[in-house]
């Protein structure tokens, strides 16, 4: 029997210095990761930290910053109506664009997993718009939605529908942007196609033997197994929709009558058009908190409807 003097005290942690080989591996790892780490610190972490300081200051990029306390936040919440309008426009765009994108991209994925001719050609065709630069994308859609010579109005005239001033009529401007967002569903479609390809055929066959038709297999097998990918696409779509900026800046510049003044465009105007960098920083952190809050709510709600195989 071991004596009490040889028993090591429980709960005591003894630091062991890493061996030279382990230290060398650490240094090699940090060396190869240094381009990302340096870029993250210089271009993301430092600007974010400095924007917190700027949110409490008044700075026009020319004169030295002046500390103003909570005046920027008071203006944002109580004085500036455009700040609330920009959040409303972004919320409207997100509320309608995201569900439509998810539904259509899922339907396309279901169709393009069937054994049809030229299936790879269709997949590539729906995905190609993703690689088109946003500036070119905005210019193309500006021509498509032209009130006189636009392709969309010419198509509607075939059915006897009068031409619409899509980007010049306030009630139609935001729906036009929602319609344009369908141009970018290729990324979601590809993710859904990958998920559908991983569903075991044995589960579908078992559902068929139990008497499930196409809708029964969709409801009881396919949709539950696809909920993790639906959740992922939903989160990414919500974040991207609140960051919509380039199309609105190029096509409408926030018009008509501020109907497309989205949150990021409002931040850009305050910071780089009117040189209110402190107020722009406050608006940016407001948007950041809203997006993070929506993301946390979505992660909390996933336990109610997202089904993981484990």
Features:
310 residues; MetI-like fold; two-stranded antiparallel ribbon; 2 strands; 68% helix; globular; disordered N terminus
CATH-derived architecture: Orthogonal Bundle
H and E string: HEEHHHHHHHHHHHH
Trace the largest sheet across and list its strands: 1-2
Span of the ends, CA to CA: 46 Å
CATH topology (fold) name: MetI-like fold
CATH superfamily: MetI-like
State the share of residues found in helices, binned by percent.
Answer: 55-70%
Residue-averaged pLDDT, rounded?
A: 91
Shape: globular
Poorly predicted residue ranges:
1-5
**Counting H and I runs of at least 4 residues, what is the number of helices?**
13
Rg value:
26 Å
Number of domain units:
1
CATH class: Mainly Alpha
Describe this structure in words.
The protein is mainly α. Helices cover 68% and strands 1% of the residues. The chain has a two-stranded antiparallel sheet. The protein is globular and about 75 Å long. Mean pLDDT is 91; it is low at 1-5.
Q: What is the structure about, briefly put?
A:
The protein is mainly α.
Strand and helix layout:
Blueprint: H1 20-54, E1 57-58, E2 66-67, H2 71-79, H3 81-111, H4 119-127, H5 134-144, H6 151-158, H7 170-180, H8 186-197, H9 201-209, H10 214-242, H11 246-251, H12 263-273, H13 277-305
Antiparallel strand pairs: 1-2
Helix pairs in contact: 1-13, 2-13, 3-7, 3-8, 3-10, 3-12, 8-10, 9-10, 10-13, 12-13
């Amino acid at each position: 029997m071991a004596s009490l003097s040889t028993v090591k005290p429980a709960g005591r942690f003894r630091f062991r210095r890493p061996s030279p080989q382990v230290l060398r591996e650490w240094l090699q790892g940090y060396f190869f990761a240094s381009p990302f780490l340096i870029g993250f610190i210089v271009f993301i972490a430092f600007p974010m930290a400095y924007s917190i300081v700027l949110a409490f200051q008044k700075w026009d990029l020319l004169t030295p910053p002046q500390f103003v306390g909570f005046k920027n936040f008071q203006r944002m919440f109580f004085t500036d109506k455009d700040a609330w309008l920009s959040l409303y426009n972004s919320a409207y765009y997100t509320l309608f664009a995201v569900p439509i994108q998810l539904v259509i991209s899922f339907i396309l994925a279901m169709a393009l997993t069937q054994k049809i001719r030229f299936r790879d050609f269709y997949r590539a065709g729906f995905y190609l718009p993703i690689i088109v630069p946003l500036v070119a994308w905005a210019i193309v859609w500006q021509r498509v939605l032209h009130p006189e010579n636009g392709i969309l109005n010419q198509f509607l005239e075939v059915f006897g529908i009068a031409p619409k001033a899509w980007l010049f009529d306030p009630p139609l401007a935001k729906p036009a942007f929602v319609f344009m967002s369908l141009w970018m569903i290729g990324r979601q479609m590809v993710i859904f196609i990958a998920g559908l390809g991983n569903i075991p055929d044995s589960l579908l066959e078992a559902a068929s033997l139990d008497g499930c038709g196409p809708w029964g297999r969709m409801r009881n097998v396919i949709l539950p197994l696809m909920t993790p990918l639906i959740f992922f696409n939903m989160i990414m779509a919500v974040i991207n929709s609140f960051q919509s900026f380039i199309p609105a800046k190029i096509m409408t510049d926030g018009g008509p009558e501020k109907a497309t003044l989205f949150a990021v465009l409002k931040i850009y105007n305050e910071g780089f058009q009117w040189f209110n960098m402190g107020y722009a920083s406050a608006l940016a952190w407001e948007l950041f908190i809203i997006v993070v809050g929506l993301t946390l709510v979505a992660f909390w709600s996933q336990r109610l409807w997202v089904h993981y195989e484990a």
